[in-house]
Write a structure and sequence with these properties.
Number of strands: 25
Structural class: alpha/beta
Number of helices: 33
Distance between the termini: 110 Å
Radius of gyration: 46 Å
CATH class of the largest domain: Alpha Beta
Shape: elongated
CATH superfamily of the largest domain: EAL domain
Strand content: 5-15%
Oligomer: single chain
């Protein structure tokens, strides 16, 4: 804003500029309603005072000159301070706004110096004119900085053309209305006319340029801090409007300082001071707002104004020329020249837009062809469903996946394709997904059953996206995967020989029986069953006959229990039965009833078996335990196990009820745990290694570390009873036993790593495999990086260690186990899944854990030759390992026939007596120097017998040996 002689600087106001003024500034919560009310009250108070003449002429001059100067100085300080608080591309713009406001404040201060202090008329020209002339250029530069920068050369050209179209049109109209007279005055040659005319032309031209930049920025403004930018645009537009009103003939000759027109300049300065602070949002006003998803028909009309700008500019230019013609005046050459340049700019801009549209059309056609090829060539089915659920598009892949042509599905309801049992779940998930914010949940995944053309229900997995209120479904057939998962789940929870539930599933069902709605029913009982004399069957007529006997015994057990009860095979010749309670409160009657059921089972299982054309007899020892109040599943199963052993010790072929005095067995196990601690502290344990051999070449690829206890006579043997105590301790039944187990596991790992490091330094770069349970790996009493520190201390490369993860308890936190194994795997430690085919949660382990190799359970290997059913299951598990890119190790390869069978099924490695038993360090190094073992091609004998000088190992053949009676 500014004043020059008898006229303030200004120019003709244009309708677009006035329209910008009417837009309310986008106010956020930062300034608050109080700041906006204060701004309105101060501006309104100034306007009222100006309308009333301020009460005196002197006060009117003070408010009209120094009041405007104070408002401009406030805007300059506000913009400068805001520019110092931001660190981004907009800082130069606000510095320019601060300098522009400072020039306006200086011009009004000079004006007040002459009028108020000196009491003189302001000379023409003066320092005030210089200050007012410096108001527009910095503001124009600041607006250019805030405008969104084009990314192409054509964009820069269009930006310049748009600016000239607006500025040239306004210049044409202004020249026709007022500027031509000022130019003719300058040409008259009167004294002092040239400076005054120059000033009269300079102010409107600068205002025209400023208005052009305001309009260009309005259509091309950046999204950053839009509320502050909009407020600044409104402030500059209000200032230009006041200048334009001042230059009109009605106000130019009669203006005095302090009149109502000063309220426009005053409000413009205050609005510019308020812009950077009052319009900011408190929580990140500088952030780019998330894009809104709008429907195509809901685009606002203002979105088309940038496209109409060239035509509006040409219309304004035409009005300027018509004004001269209608007024009867000769068309000015300046008007003709400016109008021609505007038309030329419009033609050039339309040409650029035409070329740009042609390029965009070609690019759009290429992308459309590209995506059409992707959609039509994809093996997944892509469907678009309207908001009503009607399918509007189905890709051609539907014919191959669903067996139904795409044209047949288009127009049908999506719900009609989904299985009725899955429909409710799918509808609930879709509604939840559509109600969620798109930024937080862009997609969802749904698995359900779809009806195929043949009427078969297919398992389909679909990725769902939003699309114009409807859905886009990217679907694929996962029926085979679901079937394989079900098969794996069944294999993980059932015994491969008898197809009865295994220990893991039986334990889970016992837990379910003790919790939930049956938690208060103490008449539930668990039966542990062992077949007496079964070992003689294996020894006399062979393991194949033993397997047939187990299958027949499982069938009898399954037929004997009630429909709601559970029969299971726990391993070997051990079975179990869960007899659900009937809510009876009479303990004696319930014990009598369950005892009768157990006697009937014993009698049924003891009936003669017809195996291989001969009659075979075995007996059954059964232990029974009831669910006493507060008992845990593990304690209940332990009690039944104790009762079963008591039945075997009492003469076999009998039923024994659990009694509390059987806890003496627990005391005996505690004593064994003490012996285990003594053996550890006194160095009675020795470390042996069993070679892991490639079944293709016979090469030793790894060694498996195994602990052996050295008796007082110097004989090495497997401490079966100690290991049993250790396993019970790890599941939490005895905390002291768990501590002993932790100590044994730590000793085994440290000893194995130390020996492996020594072999590596001696040139034997063979990895060592150490068996470790998940509980041991996650033991919180151990240092977090104990394995890593152990490798670093002994200098053993991490790739030379293989951790064999043993079957874990269901209560182990699987997420924590996954994180721990992932951290070790990143360091190069290889992870093996031990006991695959019988362990707990094998499917989850394959899906989530970083497993490198699978170690087949000994129970699968021992019967793979004799049992056709077991052969198929083992082959399927090996096929899964090969498909997942994992190596496989068969544990317990004791016979050449097993080696040949597993190698034919794709097993890559094996360990067992067919190659070598466990070796001490001296024999192991001799074997490593030798490097390979002969791979049996027929009925070959084991390549190297394991053991120590003190005795030989007794190889236990078969998974169905009779359960031994523990020593008294």
């Amino acid at each position: 804003m500014g004043r020059a002689g008898t006229s303030r600087r200004g120019g003709p106001v244009n309708p677009p500029g006035a329209a910008l003024l009417t837009r309310p500034p986008v106010a956020g919560g930062g300034g608050g309603l109080a700041a906006q009310l204060l701004l309105a009250v101060v501006s309104g108070g100034y306007a009222v005072g100006a309308a009333l003449g301020w009460g005196s002429e002197e006060l009117a001059k003070v408010m009209g000159d120094f009041g405007l100067s104070t408002a401009g100085l406030l805007a300059a300080v506000s913009c400068y301070h805001y520019a110092r608080t931001i660190d981004r591309r907009e800082r130069p713009a606000w510095l320019m706004f601060a300098f522009s406001s400072l020039m306006g404040a200086l011009g009004n201060a000079v004006w007040g110096w002459y009028e108020v202090i000196l009491g003189q008329k302001v000379p023409e020209p003066s320092l005030a004119d210089f200050a007012f002339l410096c108001f527009a250029p910095p503001a124009i530069v600041g607006l250019l900085v805030l405008a969104k920068r084009p990314v192409t050369r054509a964009g820069w050209v269009c930006l310049g053309l748009d600016s000239w179209l607006i500025g040239g049109s306004l210049l044409t109209l202004s020249w026709s209305l007022a500027l031509a007279n000022a130019a003719r005055t300058a040409q008259s040659g009167a004294p002092g006319s040239v400076p005054r005319a120059a000033l009269s032309l300079a102010y409107p031209l600068l205002d025209i340029a400023l208005v052009s930049m305001v309009l260009v920025l309005h259509f091309r403004r950046s999204a950053n801090n839009r509320s502050a930018v909009n407020t600044a645009i409104a402030a500059l537009a209000l200032t230009v409007l006041s200048d334009a009103l001042f230059t009109s003939p009605l106000l130019n000759t009669t203006y005095r300082s302090g009149e109502i027109l000063d309220a426009g300049w005053f409000a413009g300065s205050l609005l510019l001071a308020y812009a950077p602070w009052g319009a900011r949002r408190p929580d990140g006003a500088d952030r780019v707002p998330p894009p809104r998803v709008e429907r195509p028909h809901s685009r606002p009309i203002t979105g088309s104004l940038p496209a109409l700008t060239p035509y509006l500019a040409a219309a304004v230019c035409t009005l300027g020329i018509l004004y001269n013609v209608v007024d009867g005046r000769k068309v000015d050459r300046m008007v003709v020249f400016t109008g021609c340049t505007v038309v030329l700019a419009l033609v050039i801009r339309q040409g650029i837009m035409l070329l740009d549209n042609i390029a965009l059309t070609q690019e759009l056609a290429q992308k459309e062809n590209h995506f059409r090829s992707l959609v039509q060539g994809s093996s997944d089915v892509i469907m678009i469903a309207a908001p009503t659920g009607t399918l509007r598009y189905v890709s051609p892949a539907a014919a191959g996946v669903y067996g139904r042509e795409a044209e047949e599905l288009i127009g049908s309801e999506l719900a009609s394709l989904i299985h009725p049992d899955d429909l409710g779940r799918v509808v609930h998930e879709v509604r939840r997904f559509l109600a969620a914010p798109p930024a937080e949940e862009p997609t969802t995944r749904i698995e359900c059953r779809f009806e195929s053309g043949s009427g078969e229900w297919l398992n389909v997995e679909s990725t769902v996206n939003r699309h114009q209120g409807g859905l886009i479904l990217n679907s694929r057939d996962v029926t085979e995967r679901v079937r394989l998962q079900a098969q794996l789940q069944h294999s993980a929870e059932h015994d491969p020989l008898t197809d009865l539930p295994n220990r893991a599933l039986f334990t889970r069902r016992v837990r379910q029986a003790l919790t939930g709605r049956r938690a208060g029913d103490h008449s539930t009982a668990v039966l542990f069953i062992d077949l007496d004399g079964f070992k003689a069957v294996n020894d006399t007529i062979g393991h194949q006959a033993g397997d047939e006997l187990l299958v027949e015994a499982a069938r009898r057990l399954q037929d004997a229990v009630r429909a709601g009860d559970t029969a299971a095979r726990l391993g070997g010749d051990e079975f179990a039965a869960l007899i659900l309670g009937d809510g009876s409160r009479d303990r004696s009657a319930r014990e009598y009833q369950v005892h009768e059921i157990a006697e009937r089972l014993r009698s049924t299982l003891s009936q003669p078996y017809r195996i291989a054309g001969s009659e075979v007899r075995v007996a059954a020892s059964i232990g029974v335990a009831f669910a006493d109040p507060g008992i845990t599943p593990s304690d209940l199963m332990r009690n039944a196990d104790l009762a079963m052993y008591r039945a075997k010790a009492g003469g076999k072929d009998r039923v024994e009820l659990y009694a509390p005095q059987m806890q003496a067995e627990v005391v005996r196990k505690a004593e064994l745990a003490g012996r285990l601690r003594t053996a550890l502290h006194e160095g009675e344990f020795a470390l042996l290694h069993q070679p892991v051999v490639s079944l293709a070449t016979g090469e030793v690829t790894a060694v498996a570390a195994q602990a052996r206890w050295r008796s007082a006579q110097g004989i090495l043997f497997t401490p079966a009873e100690f290991l049993r105590v250790a396993e019970q301790g790890e599941t939490g039944s005895a905390g002291q036993d768990a501590a002993r187990t932790t100590e044994l596991g730590r000793w085994l790992l440290e000893e194995a790593v130390e020996r492996a490091a020594e072999r590596h330094r001696a040139g034997h770069d063979v990895p060592v495999a150490v068996r470790m349970t998940a509980q041991r790996l996650l033991d919180r009493s151990l240092p977090r990086g104990s394995v890593e520190a152990l490798l670093a201390r002994h200098g053993l490369p991490s790739g030379a260690l293989v951790l064999e993860l043993a079957a874990s308890d269901p209560r182990v936190p699987f997420d924590e186990l996954e994180r721990r194994l992932t951290a070790l795997h990143r360091l190069g430690v290889r992870i093996a899944l031990d006991g695959f085919g019988s362990g707990y949660a094998a499917i989850s382990a394959l899906r989530r854990l970083p497993v490198d190799l699978l170690k087949l359970d000994r129970g699968l290997v021992e019967g793979v030759v004799e049992s056709a059913r077991l052969h198929k299951i083992t082959a399927g598990l090996l096929r899964i390992a090969n498909d997942l890119g994992m190596q496989s190790v068969a544990d317990g390869l004791d016979l050449p026939e097993q080696v040949l069978a597993l190698r034919a099924m794709g097993c890559t490695h094996g360990q067992g007596a067919a190659f070598s038993g466990p070796l001490d360090e001296y024999r192991l190094r001799r074997a490593l120097v030798r490097g390979t073992f002969p791979v049996p091609g027929g009925t070959a004998q084991p390549a190297l017998a394991g053991g120590s000088s003190g005795g030989s190992m007794v190889i236990r053949r078969g998974s169905n040996n009779e359960t031994p009676v523990p020593p008294a």
